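quick one, 295 residues, struct below
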Amino acid sequence: MSGAAAWLAVVGAAGAGVSAPGTGVLVGMPLPVVAMGAAVCAGGALLPDIDCPGSLSLKDGSTVVRAFGIVGEVVGQGMDAMALLVFNVTKSRHDPDRHSGHRLLTHTAIFALGLGMLTSLAASLPGTFAAGGKRYSTGTVMALLIMWSCLHLSLFGLFEKWTKKERKKFSLIGVMVISAVLTTVTASTLPVEAARGKFWWLGLAVGGGSAVHCLGDAITRAGVPFLWPIPIRGRRWWEIQLPSLLAIRAGGRFEYGALFPVLTVLTLWLMVYTMPASKWLAVSVAGLIGIDVPS
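---
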C-alpha cells in the first residue's frame, strides 16, 4: 500500500491542476502507465525483504520469498548470504557483529538506486530474438516479465492470508495466473511508443518502491542502514530510526490496526484523484478488504 500510495502521490503532485486528453494527471503519462506504475511500485516496495528467507517448507520467510515458491526461497538464501558477506567486508570496528543478512544491503539507498537503474536498463534492451517462429523485442519481453513479477508480488501481499490458507489448493499458482492475465490486459492498453520499448518508468517504480520500503522500516524499532556506506559516528552500517518512544513494532497492532487502514484509504483516494475512471476499481478493492466506501 505504501508503494502504490507513493507512486500515485508523486504522479498527482507532479501534474496537479494539469489536464490533457488521454493522459493522466502527469502530462505525457497515459492512464495505463499510471495504473501499472502503481502496481509495480507496490510490488517493488516488498523487494528489499528478499534477504529474509525461511525454510524450504515455504511456510515462513518474507512475503517476497514465499510469493515465488522454491525459486524465491533459493534467491532469498543467496541474498541473505551475500548481504552478510558485504557487511563483514565493509563494516567498521564500531559496527556490531551480525549473523544474518536481513536489513543490511537490500535496505540501503544504493540498493534502491541500483535496482531502479538495472530495471530501466533491462526494460530498454535493444535487439530482438526469435521464439516459436516469431520475433520479439528483448526490452519489451523483459519489461513484461518485470510487470508480471511485481504485479504478482503486490497481489500476493494483498491476499497473503488467503494464499497461505489455501496453499494445498494451488493458490500460489492461481495468483500467478491472475497477475499474468492482468499484465497482458494492461500491457495491451499501453501507448504505441511504450510497446516499442520505452519502459524507462519501470525503473522509477521499482527503485522508488524499494526506497519507500526502507523508509517505512526506518520507523520501526530496528531501523535500517539506509545511508550505507556513509560513516555516521564511526559506523558504516548506522541504522536510521525514530526515537524509541515513537518507533513502532513491525507486524504489531499499530501497523495493522492504524497504519494499514490509513494507507489503504489514502491509496484508494489517490487512485480516484489521478485516474477518475478507476473509481469503480477503488470501490471494489475497498469492498474486498472490508472497507465500506460509498459508490
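The longest strand covers residues 128-131.
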